[in-house]
Design brief:
There is one protein chain. The protein is α+β, with helices and mostly antiparallel strands and about 675 residues long. It has 3 domains: about 190 residues, no CATH class; about 280 residues, no CATH class; about 210 residues, no CATH class. The protein has 24 helices and 11 strands. A 7-stranded mixed β-sheet has the order 3-5-9-6-8-7-4. It has a 4-stranded antiparallel β-sheet with strand order 2-10-1-11, sandwiched between helices. α11 runs parallel beside α23 and α21 runs parallel beside α24. The longest helix has about 45 residues. The chain is elongated and about 100 Å long.
Length: about 675
């Protein structure tokens, strides 16, 4: 009988609070996805090429997991408290019928355990399917292919997910039961009343609202227009102004709503005034919760946007070279003549790259006149440091760089008629690229030994070797004949290798690169592999994207659940008002419409501020703290961000629908009870 009652109560709780139950399932999925990260294909691959970085990332996961549990605890606590508050009368009747408090608390804990088991039974399989989909998709994108995929089932991740989830549930119930244990029987049977509201004058509300709005606008201005010039000095002020402004804005919003209500009251019909007053009271009593939810949503949107953008941007380094072999021409030819190597090679060519003769080693010194280029750079924002450090140290031959452009399907350059081009391996990872591109598009030239050479309007930045073994701040791509004159060492710097397209298509890029890597490793020859570059790229993708998107989803989940539960708690505390409306003749349709309107306005007040703040935060983040790499598919980033925004809007609509349905059901039950 006891366990039958437990199952019945648990089922009733899940049905009556689907918002909370759904949030728990999503939290379980998020926990497992995070904890099983080390078992996914990409992370297993990264462990072979970036073992130290992966090890540090794995050491960070427990910290992120602990932080997640901390936030989920509050979500679970408020949700459980909402459930228990709705059952106070039921629990009081149990005590009146002679049930001991210890048995009642045992029943509550068993209900919690049973609901947790149901949540885990649903959440774990969904999490497994989701992680497999992520693993397969990522493996396909990075070139591991289906051959490199291995089904992952992390027993440790499941164990920690189960333990952490149940721990949070039981701690929440323990705190709630301690409070219930101190409550007298009469207190449990007494109808719950809303808390007394602290009166705030209209003038005080107006001051709070105006000051809050001014602080928020100041934070937006500092972030958008001043962060780049003043740097981290203003970061603290932005945080203080933004957080304080959000709290003051919601603190004073109730007073402005009251002014609007007084103006519209003479012409109001039906329950319009009642609806507006309910919204005003919710704002007055829950202004701190609204501010916290708005800030959490802002952080969530910023994290998700950053994760999407960095994930796409970091994965866009063009694959220009698969291997770079260093050694004498005879040594390299001997390696390439092996059957196992030759059948996998599509193309090989020497890369001619060298220091410029500067007279330091007794060779002929060459003079470069960069005055015209510096003049073109002047006036371009962020060019001061570039102008100060502008110098030419390296030259690259036109023919060898054209082989790189041809291999990646780009148009080859033509440097006939005294033309040169600028190359920088830093262009895709700093402001250097965007600044120099603006200067080159103005049309400029550079002087070499008294002769003027026109600079092409394009800045080149594709890798000249497989793994950026050499960092070129600025180099000149020059015709082959001029290269011979300028180069300190005219011989080839290395031999670049490209894998066969058929092999890559058959095995997948990473599998093919790993196989060739094993062939070169046996020779003892010095070489660079595309594995090293893609390994770092993938690590940054995982670290920047997975974790920030995970935290964004978690904050998003908590914020929406808090908004919904806070409204439902407030409605339950003021249910006697709806009973009064029924006595005055209000029909169910009018009250349901009023409730739905309240919920829409309640969510809109949070979302509107969160969207504006997140737009300012995202703009600041991508203009001051980080930039998309040069060549990143901006269209893809925008498309994915738009898709994420559509998903965000869809889930917000779903949350609003669930809260509306729950609130309307409570009003309907209230009407039925009253009529009986």
């Amino acid at each position: 009988m006891f366990f039958k009652q437990v199952r019945r109560n648990a089922a009733k709780n899940r049905k009556g609070n689907g918002l909370f139950f759904g949030s728990l399932v999503i939290a379980i999925i998020a926990f497992y996805t995070l904890l099983s990260l080390g078992e996914q294909d990409v992370m297993r691959y990264l462990a072979t090429v970036e073992s130290d970085a992966v090890r540090k990332l794995m050491m960070l996961l427990p910290v992120v997991y602990a932080v997640s549990l901390f936030f989920v605890f509050f979500l679970v606590y408020f949700s459980c408290k909402y459930q228990m508050d709705s059952r106070r009368r039921e629990l009081g009747i149990y005590l009146m019928l002679g049930m001991k408090r210890s048995r009642m608390f045992s029943m509550i804990f068993c209900e919690t355990l049973w609901s947790s088991v149901i949540s885990l039974v649903i959440g774990i399989p969904v999490a497994l399917l989701l992680t497999e989909a992520i693993s397969l998709t990522t493996a396909k994108v990075v070139g591991l292919g289906i051959i490199g995929h291995r089904f992952s089932f992390s027993v440790g991740a499941i164990a920690w997910t189960v333990c952490g989830f149940i721990l949070v549930q039981f701690l929440s119930m323990l705190f709630i039961c301690i409070g219930l244990g101190k409550a007298e029987l009469a207190e449990l049977l007494r109808p719950e009343n809303g808390k007394n509201q602290r009166h705030t004058s209209g003038a005080a509300s107006a001051v709070c609202f105006i000051v809050g709005l001014a602080l928020l606008l100041t934070a937006y201005y500092l972030g958008i227009f001043q962060m780049r010039s003043l740097g981290m000095v203003v970061m603290l002020f932005i945080l203080i102004f933004g957080i304080t402004g959000t709290f003051l804005l919601y603190r004073g919003l109730g007073g402005f709503l009251g002014l609007g209500i007084r103006r519209k009251s003479p012409n109001a019909v039906g329950l319009q005034t009642f609806t507006a007053r309910q919204v005003q009271e919710n704002v007055l009593s829950q202004h701190k919760s609204l501010a916290v939810a708005s800030l959490l949503l802002m952080i969530a949107l910023a994290c998700i946007s950053y994760g999407i953008s960095m994930g796409i941007g970091r994965s866009t380094d063009s694959r220009s070279v698969d291997f770079s072999l260093f050694g004498s021409e005879e040594e390299i030819d001997a390696v390439l003549e092996k059957d196992a190597v030759r059948e996998m090679v599509k193309d090989d060519y020497p890369l001619y790259l060298s220091h410029v003769k500067d007279g330091y080693y007794g060779d002929q010194e060459h003079a470069f006149d960069t005055s015209e280029l510096k003049e073109a750079l002047r006036g371009v924002e962020g060019s001061d440091n570039i102008i100060e450090n502008l110098h030419i140290e390296y030259v690259i031959s036109e023919s060898s760089y054209n082989r790189i452009l041809k291999s990646i399907g780009k148009e080859e350059m033509e440097l006939e008629g005294q033309k040169t081009a600028i190359y920088s391996s830093l262009a895709s990872r700093s402001t250097f690229g965007s600044v120099v591109k603006v200067a080159l598009q103005k049309g400029t030239s550079i002087g070499i030994d008294g002769k003027s050479y026109e600079l092409l309007p394009t800045l080149y930045y594709d890798n000249v070797v497989a793994d950026r073994a050499i960092t070129l701040y600025m180099a000149l791509i020059v015709p082959d004949s001029l290269y011979t004159e300028l180069a300190r060492k005219p011989e080839a710097y290395c031999r670049n290798i490209h894998l066969s397209d058929d092999i890559v298509k058959e095995m997948g890029l990473m599998q093919a690169v790993q196989k060739m890597d094993a062939q070169f490793a046996d020779t003892g020859m010095e070489y660079d592999s595309y594995l090293g570059g893609i390994g770092r790229n993938l690590f940054y993708t995982v670290a920047a994207s997975y974790l920030t998107i995970y935290l964004g989803v978690l904050f998003w989940l908590i914020a929406n659940t808090v908004i919904g539960l806070k409204y439902l708690i407030s409605q339950r505390q003021t249910k006697h008002r709806y009973e009064t409306l029924i006595m005055l003749g209000a029909d169910m349709q009018s009250m349901s419409k009023s409730v739905k309107k309240q919920i829409s306005v309640y969510f809109d007040m949070v979302l509107s501020v969160a969207l504006v703040s997140s737009a300012a935060a995202i703009f600041t983040m991508f203009t001051s703290f980080t930039r998309l790499p040069v060549g990143a598919p901006v269209g893809v980033v925008i498309a994915l961000s738009a898709a994420a925004l559509v998903v965000f809007a869809g889930i917000e609509v779903l949350y609003i629908y669930i809260v509306r349905r729950t609130a309307s059901r409570e009003i309907s039950q209230l009407e039925i009870t009253n009529r009986r």
